[in-house]
Amino acid sequence: MSGGSVRRRLALGLAVLTASGMLSLASPVTAEAASGAPSVSTASNSNGCSGRKARTLAFATGEVRVYRNGGYVCAVTVPKRQGAPQWMSVSLRARGGRPVVDEGHYTKRAGPVTVYAGRRQVWIEGAVGKGSVSSGWIRL
Question: Do residues 119 and 61 share a domain?
Answer without folding.
Answer: yes
